[in-house]
Structure formats: structure tokens, C-alpha cells
Design a protein that fits this description.
Layout lengths: L1 E2 L5 E4 L4 E5 L5 E6 L2 H6 L1 E9 L2 E8 L4 E4 L7 E3 L12 E7 L2 E8 L2 E5 L4 E4 L11 E6 L6 E5 L3 E5 L6 E3 L6 E6 L6 E7 L2 E5 L5 E5 L5 E4 L3 E5 L4 E5 L4 H7 L6 H13 L4 H11 L3 H14 L4 H15 L8 H17 L19 H4 L13 H4 L3 H10 L8 H12 L7 H12 L7 H10 L3 H8 L5 H10 L3 H11 L2 H14 L2 H9 L2 H14 L1 H11 L2 H12 L5 H17 L3 H24 L8 H10 L3 H10 L4 H15 L2 H8 L10
Antiparallel strand pairs: 1-2, 2-3, 3-4, 5-6, 6-7, 7-8, 9-10, 10-11, 11-12, 13-14, 14-15, 15-16, 17-18, 18-19, 19-20, 21-22, 22-23
Family: Belongs to the VPS16 family.
GO molecular function, one term: actin binding
Protein name: Vacuolar protein sorting-associated protein 16 homolog
């Protein structure tokens, strides 16, 4: 068994199947650690955490290691084989070094390190040859420290060149590394026979007697000691101020201020004497700061923390322009911590584990509520929504980053309640959320759809004001026609194109065209798309509508893409037929003339070996006159019934360009000029 970073329970079975449950023992999903684990079974398993996420390491019955560094992006990795390993190692642990996950294992007096490609033997610096065989190893929470326990009662703890050897009696029950972030003090905690021992860098050790058999759990800044009836936390006091104040007969400024406040409560004049002593040394600001710091880190109970807060408040009254930010922030932090540490809530965070409330407090408060960069919050995961909302309001977090996110989580939980109808759930969610900033109804609807409540998801999408969020989910739910209507209502052409193309891939051609017939806007946009991308589909659309006019235009347009003259004439002939069906006499006559002109141009090109194709009628006549083919020009003039004035201007211009004045004189005397004096 093990916990993920998001507080899901992992249950690793003998066949390598990993079951995942949430805090309420509700099954979420499962995955397998591969065929090799399935065939050889699991001898031992460990759950570990790295910067990649939560991982699982497996020791199989074939004495091989397999691991996955991130269960949310499962990539199984088989570690190299340990030479000569015929039985399970006496102990092993997972380490993370330079973003690479490795396995450290012990066989007798030998240590082996398995990385991605190789297996190597390692020797801890300073380890005595007579230390004996390794029985247990422990890794610190941040993977920076390692402790090794041997059968002769020795402990080796190291980080790089660090070495420490302590003789201990056997038998043992548990070894854990205990250290605080950014602390230079490292310690190892050992439990056996209801005794607890803490050994550090020096030869000194501290021993404690336990009332019951206990289990040790390492954490970020200490070790939790769990028994059947109690839960204790052993850690280094990180604040020097706490050590100064709590020392016997301490004369530290914070200790004097604390005494002054106690005497003030007793209405004793000694309060003034203590204050004067501090002020004479000009240490009153330091005394207040020490009390503030000790209130957070050194206070074991709410009453002790309150005592330090009262002392700090008392002292700052005698300081001009004392910045109140640190005091206010500490009071806020303590109040929040007290609220979530309450036995009815049961989240025993330490002050070090509690996120820092700095200038970026909105982005660093992930342990109290669910924020964008912090993942699921502990309160929200426990469905303690009222307390989470009260904390957000107390800390004056922005509505989008605080209350809105909590309400969204509540709504996602609400849609899972199947004892109420879809109408009741949708109405209750809308009543609670309304138009709260930062709420995405589409995300809630997606959760409802994942839970198998499609109709509820559709009802929730009705409250979503952004069509761009509605349409993708409707398409996912196979409600394409409704998605098309929403896209058209939005006026977003890109969104309409998205739905139309999705419908095209989803439906058969006939049903697709019929669907578009009922949506003129979508049909018009699709026609525009086909004009540029799918010309043949455009032809099918016109055929289905019996739109002969557009079909004629389509064939005319297509004729210009034909390279051979026969193909072009054939396309124009099709256009001519469609124009006759559309009763467009002008278009039909123009197309017929174009067919006639193309055929004549082909003959001219063959007769004179000169390009005439694709010229207009006027250019064709003009070129014939320029080339001296007057009879062929007159033939076109008569066949295409070119007006007299136009033909005279064409011929006069061409003859003038050619400089054929004799022909121009002859032409001018052939008949009366329709264009006047020549």
C-alpha cells in the first residue's frame, strides 16, 4: 500500500495490478506493471515520489526490478540484472539523483546501484569493514541523505563525503532519516523494543521510551511516530529564536518580552522593568521578531502560540512605525493551521509543511485550497468545502483563485450523486454557482459525461456562456446537430467550420447534405469551403439541390482547368445543357458562342501554326487582320454577328498598326463607313 502525491491510495497486488482509490475508498482506475511482473509475481513493492510524480518500484520473483516513475504517464522500465542474485536482497530503496531514478540494494555486505543501463558495486565512504551485513536502509524525504543499518548494530549515514558510525543494540524495528529543509543538522531515528533513539552528526544520541509498539513515517521536516492510540511528531526546532527563548535562564530579548507580557497580565510593575531593560539595549524590535518566529515554529500547542502572539502584540505597541506585515501573516497562518489541525478535520500539518504566505501567496497556497499550480487541495479532497471557502475568504484570496475553484470541485462532486434527478442536480449547481467568476460549466459538464450522465451534461452546458466551450463537449457526446446550432448562434465561423467538418467525417454523404439543408448558414459556409478545397463535393451539393444555374457555372469554371481542347469543349457543353435547364438563355447563348469560338481557334491554330486558343473574339479578329488573313476575319465577323461599328474600329486599328494603307483605302471604299469620316 502507498499514497500518491494527490492522496490517492495505491494497492499493489501480487500479479502486478495496481488499484487506485481516492480518500473515500472509491475506485478510480487500475493499471498493470507488465507481463514480466504478471508471470513472476511481486515479492516486494515500494511507492516513491520524484519531481516527475508518484512512482512504483517492483521486485519480482525472478529477482529483477521494474519501475514506473510516474503512474499518470505510465512508462515501465526494467532495471539491469544483478550478477549472481539468487535470493531477494536483504534491503533496497529507490533513489533520485540528477532527475534519474535508481535502485540501491544490499546483498550481505555488498551494495549494488542499478541505473538505466548498468549495475555497479558501491562502497559507502568511511564504512568499517567489520560493520557486518546490511539489514535495512532509509532515504530522507528529499533523497539527499541515506542511512544504512547493519547486523552488528552500526548505522552509517551519509551525504556525499558525510560519514557517521554509531553502535546500537539489536533487534531493530525501524530506521528513518530525519532532517529539516535547508538545515545542516541531519539525524537518523531508530525504533526498537519500545525505544526510540535519535543520532546525529556527533557521537551524542537522544533516547526516548515509547508506550506502545510504533511505526515511523518520514516527512519533509521530521518523523511521525504512529501507534495504535497516539500520533506524535519528532522534528528539529528550525527557529533559533525558539531555542534562545526556551533556554533555561535565558536573557534573550524574546524571553524578556515574554516575561514582560506575563507580568503585565498579572498587573505587576516588573513588566515595566523588563521592557526598560529591552529598550535600553535597543533590542525591542528583535524581541518582537523572536516572539513572532517562535509563535510559528516553536509552539507545540495553540495556547503556547497564542502566548507568543500576545507577547509580540504587546511589544510592538512600544515601537514607532513597526511594520505589521510579519505579525499579521503569522497570526493568519496560525489560525489556518489550528483550523485544519482540529481533530474533526485531522490534517496535522507542521509550520514548515504549511506553504509560505509571501507576496505570491495566491500561487503558493496549494496545501490549503486547490490552486492552479498546487493541484488538488487536502481540504477539497476531503470534501470539506465550507471550511475551505471560509479560509479563502479569511485570507482574502481572489474569487477566481479561491472560492470559484472550490465551488467547481463541489459541483464536480455533486454530479456524481446518482440519487437525484438530472434536473435537480443541474438546478442546484446553477443556484449555488450562478455567474461566479472563474467557473467553467463545461468542465463540470465534462465530469458529468464521464460519470455516464449525458443528459445532465447537456443541461449544464446550457449555463455555459462561451460557445467555444460548449461545442467541443457536445461533439464528444455525439450531439453534433446541437453542436452545430450552438456554433451558428455564436457567430464564430471557425467554430461552425469545426462542427461541419466533424459532421462530414461522422455522417454518410446523404445524411450530411440533408443536415446542412436545414442550416442555411452552415450550408453557405460549406459551399465557400468547397469552392476552394473540394470542387467535386460542390458539384454534388448543386446536384442534390437541382441548382442548374450553379451547376452551369461550375462546369464553366472547371473547363478552364482542362488542358486539352476536347475536355474544355466537353465541360462547356455540360454547362450549356445546365443553362438550358435553368432557362438562362443569355448564359446558354454565350456558352454556345464560346464553344464555336474554341473550335474555330483550333482550326486557325492548325492552319496557320500560330497560337489562337484562349484569345477573345476581338483579339482573334485583330490578330487575323494583323497577319493578313482578311477573309478569315470577315468570316468571324459574319458568323458571330459582330456589330459594324465595332468591326470597323477593329479592322482600322489593326491595319493602322500594320501600316497597310492600301488595304485601308480599299476597305474604306468597300461600303459606307458606319463610324464617320475616315
Amino acid at each position: 500500500l502507498g499514497w500518491t502525491a494527490s492522496e490517492d491510495l495505491l494497492c499493489i497486488q501480487e500479479d502486478g495490478t495496481v488499484l487506485i482509490y481516492n480518500l473515500f475508498c472509491e475506485f478510480k482506475r487500475h493499471f498493470s506493471m507488465g507481463n514480466e511482473v504478471l508471470q513472476n509475481h511481486v515479492l516486494e513493492a515500494k511507492v516513491f515520489h520524484t519531481e516527475y510524480g508518484t512512482g512504483v518500484a517492483i521486485l519480482t520473483g525472478a529477482h529483477r526490478f521494474s519501475l514506473a516513475t510516474n503512474i499518470d504517464d505510465l512508462k515501465l522500465r526494467r532495471m539491469p540484472e544483478v550478477p549472481g542474485l539468487q535470493k531477494p536482497p536483504s534491503c533496497w530503496a529507490v533513489l533520485s539523483q540528477d532527475r534519474v531514478t535508481i535502485v540501491l540494494l544490499a546483498i550481505g555486505q555488498d551494495l549494488y546501484l542499478l541505473d538505466n543501463t548498468s549495475c555497479s558495486v558501491v562502497t559507502p565512504p568511511g564504512m568499517s569493514p567489520s560493520a557486518g551485513a546490511y539489514l535495512q536502509m532509509a532515504v530522507s524525504f528529499n533523497y539527499r541523505c541515506l542511512a544504512l543499518f547493519t547486523d552488528t548494530g552500526y548505522i552509517w549515514m551519509g551525504l556525499a563525503t558525510l560519514k557517521l558510525s554509531v553502535s546500537l543494540p539489536s533487534p531493530w524495528q525501524g530506521v528513518r532519516v530525519c532532517m529539516r529543509p535547508r538545515s545542516r543538522q541531519r539525524a537518523v531515528v531508530v525504533a526498537w523494543d519500545r525505544q526510540l533513539m535519535v543520532a546525529g552528526n556527533s557521537s551524542e544520541e537522544r533516547r526516548f521510551v515509547l508506550d506502545e509498539d510504533s511505526y515511523l513515517v518520514p516527512e519533509l521536516d521530521g518523523v511521525r511516530i504512529l501507534s495504535r492510540t497516539s500520533h506524535e511528531f519528532l522534528h528539529e526546532i528550525p527557529a533559533e529564536a525558539s531555542q534562545e527563548i526556551f533556554k533555561i535562564a535565558s536573557m534573550a530579548p524574546g524571553a524578556l518580552l515574554l516575561e514582560a507580557q506575563k507580568e503585565y497580565e498579572k498587573e505587576s510593575q516588573k513588566a515595566d522593568e523588563y521592557l526598560r531593560e529591552i529598550k535600553d539595549q535597543k533590542l525591542l524590535p528583535e524581541a518582537v521578531s523572536q516572539c513572532i518566529e517562535a509563535g510559528g515554529y516553536g509552539a507545540e500547542t495553540p495556547s503556547t502560540a497564542r502566548l507568543f502572539s500576545q507577547a509580540a502584540s504587546f511589544g510592538k505597541c512600544f515601537i514607532d512605525k513597526f511594520p505589521p506585515e510579519s505579525f499579521v501573516r503569522m497570526c493568519q497562518d496560525l489560525r489556518v493551521l489550528n483550523a485544519i489541525r482540529d481533530y474533526q478535520i485531522g490534517i496535522p500539518l507542521t509550520f514548515t509543511q504549511y506553504p509560505p504566505w509571501d507576496s505570491a501567496r495566491v500561487m503558493t497556497s496549494g496545501r490549503v485550497q486547490d490552486l492552479a499550480r498546487a493541484g488538488s487541495a487536502q481540504l477539497v479532497l476531503r470534501r470539506l468545502y465550507p471550511l475551505a471557502i471560509r479560509i479563502c475568504e479569511y485570507l482574502r484570496l481572489s474569487e477566481i483563485q479561491g472560492v470559484s475553484r472550490i465551488l467547481a470541485h463541489w459541483a464536480c462532486y455533486k454530479v456524481q450523486q446518482k440519487d437525484k434527478s438530472d434536473e435537480e442536480v443541474a438546478h442546484a449547481i446553477n443556484q449555488k454557482l450562478g455567474d461566479t467568476p472563474g467557473i467553467s460549466y463545461s468542465e463540470i459538464a465534462a465530469r458529468a459525461y464521464d460519470c455516464g450522465r449525458t443528459e445532465l451534461a447537456i443541461k449544464l452546458l446550457e449555463y455555459e456562456p462561451r460557445s467555444g466551450e460548449q461545442v467541443p463537449l457536445l461533439l464528444k457526446m455525439k450531439r453534433s446537430k446541437l453542436a452545430l446550432s450552438k456554433a451558428i448562434e455564436s457567430g464564430d465561423t471557425d467554430l461552425v467550420y469545426t462542427v461541419v467538418l466533424h459532421l462530414k467525417n461522422e455522417l454518410n454523404r446523404g445524411t450530411f447534405f440533408m443536415t446542412l439543408q436545414n442550416q442555411p448558414v452552415a450550408l453557405s459556409l460549406y459551399r465557400q469551403f468547397c469552392k476552394h478545397q473540394e470542387r467535386e463535393t460542390l458539384k454534388d451539393l448543386y446536384n442534390q439541390d437541382d441548382n442548374h444555374q450553379e451547376l452551369g457555372n461550375f462546369h464553366v469554371h472547371s473547363s478552364y482547368s482542362e488542358k486539352r481542347i476536347e475536355g474544355r469543349v466537353g465541360a462547356l457543353q455540360n454547362a450549356l445543357d445546365e443553362y438550358y435547364k435553368a432557362k438562362n438563355e443569355f448564359a446558354a447563348k454565350a456558352t454556345e458562342d464560346q464553344i464555336k469560338l474554341l473550335r474555330l481557334q483550333r482550326h486557325l491554330q492548325e492552319d496557320f501554326d500560330k497560337p489562337y486558343l484562349d484569345l477573345s473574339l476581338h483579339d482573334t479578329v485583330s490578330n487575323l487582320i494583323l497577319d493578313g488573313h482578311h477573309k478569315r476575319a470577315d468570316q468571324l465577323y459574319r458568323e458571330f454577328k459582330i456589330p459594324d461599328k465595332r468591326y470597323w474600329w477593329l479592322k482600322i486599328s489593326a491595319l493602322a498598326t500594320r501600316g497597310d494603307w492600301e488595304e485601308m483605302e480599299k476597305f474604306s471604299k468597300s461600303k459606307k463607313s458606319p463610324i464617320g469620316y475616315l
